[in-house]
Amino acid sequence: MKALLEKIQQQVSEIAELKYIDENWGQLDYYSPNMPVQFPCALIDVQQVQFTNLGRDMSKKPVQRQIGQVVLKITIADIRLAIAVYRHQGHKKERVWAIWDIIEQIHKQLHGVSLLPNVSPLIRVRSVERCVMMECKNMKCITVVKCRIVSASRMDN
């Protein structure tokens, strides 16, 4: 699992716009004016792992063979200091829409890519959940977009 998460981080780190990439341990739930991330960020989380038994293979260790299906969630967040009003023009409006460009770049970096031997290609299974959080002190609006991907892997360790 660790190797898969490291490879995902490596792939996502090629997106220059992202300032912070890490495993999700609740950084956006840290209720303080100074969240421990830089924006925009991508946080990777293991949502679920299900295993199916394949039987025994005496030539391998462990002998009992399994296939695991891993559901990962990537949370993309950015501070939104402006709203995307249709008639507004310029840099602020472009900045508001930038998070959608990052989502598309992450999709291109990960979808259909096999990152490790004996790991099937990553497949997006749920596109976007969106929530907006409001920080009360500075009235900064943080846009959080969550993308889910799934990978089925054969465990040969």
How would you describe this protein?
With 157 residues, this protein is α+β, with helices and mostly antiparallel strands. Helix content is 20%, strand content 42%. It has helices at 2-12, 91-110; strands at residues 20-23, 41-56, 64-80, 123-135, 140-155. Strands 1-2-3-5-4 form a five-stranded mixed beta sheet. The longest helix has 20 residues, at 91-110. The radius of gyration is 19 Å and the shape is elongated. The termini are close together.
Topology of this structure?
Blueprint lengths: L1 H11 L7 E4 L17 E16 L7 E17 L10 H20 L12 E13 L4 E16 L2
Parallel strand pairs: 1-2
Antiparallel strand pairs: 2-3, 3-5, 4-5
Entry summary:
This protein is of the alpha+beta class. The protein is 20% helix and 42% strand.
What labels describe this entry?
157 residues; alpha+beta; five-stranded mixed beta sheet; 2 helices; 42% strand; elongated
**Structural Rg:** 19 Å
The percentage helix is 10-25%
Identify low-pLDDT runs: 132-142, 147-157
Q: Can you give the mean pLDDT?
A: 75
* Total count of strands: 5
